Amino acid sequence: EYEQILFQEETLWFQKSRKKWIRWGTRNTSFFHTQTFIWRKRNHIHGLFLSIGDWCTKLERLKEEATMFFKELIILYSGRV
Question: Is the pTM of the predicted complex or chain greater than 0.85?
Fold first, then answer.
């Protein structure tokens, strides 16, 4: 229920921003740059749950965990190709 409401709110704001972009087009480059900044910030990964279940936000540890995860995935599926 709560997640659905959050999704609806995000969709509403997304549609409003698209409406403004269509209306103002390239005449409003500050609007375009602001929207790009917001989208980039929204797509940023702030942290991950580690394999042991802990939440981690340290960049070096995230890199290590991601590398280890994909190495294990490649090893797991390398024999199935």
Answer: no
